[in-house]
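Re: beginner question about structure tokens

> Can someone show what the tokenized structure looks like for a real chain? I only ever see the sequence side.

Sure, here's an example I had lying around. Input first:
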Amino acid sequence: MTKKDLIEIVGKKANLTKKAARDAVQTTLNTIRDSLKRGEKVVLTGFGTFSIRSRKQRVGRNPKTGAKITLAARKAPGFTPGKTLKKAVR
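And the corresponding structure tokens:
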């Protein structure tokens, strides 16, 4: 499923115009992104939790030359599915 498909489904199920559905989906995604940027967790009960995970500094390898390189510590978004979502997918 693509973002375009999601917009179409939201529009049909919520009886919205295509523009209104696109705005609703985009606003939802932007709100999740902005919350994660601030370091907050986003909990959607019954669906899952979006959070920021810290990655430690580590040694990697350049695949082209084989030389060792140091990969800096960074933050990455993560998602943990909720019980309801896990049961639905099984």
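Each token stands for a local structural state, so reading them left to right follows the chain. The first helix runs from residue 3 to 13.
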